[in-house]
Design a protein that fits this description.
Blueprint (H helix, E strand, L loop, with lengths): L15 H33 L1
Length: 49
């Protein structure tokens, strides 16, 4: 009896262009998070002074 299984793809690396897109997205997300935290600190310092 023959089985119709697809080859394992878990060992295959993603395409380089998608990897660059993921890294770029992470960098932008970290930058946005740092800017948001900075804005919150600036706001709190402004309220207290």
């Amino acid at each position: 009896m023959t089985t119709h299984r697809t080859p394992e793809q878990s060992t295959r690396r993603p395409a380089p262009h998608s990897e660059r897109a993921v890294v770029a997205g992470l960098v932008l997300a970290v930058g946005a998070g740092v800017a948001w935290i900075g804005g919150m600190i600036y706001t709190i310092v402004g309220w207290s002074g």
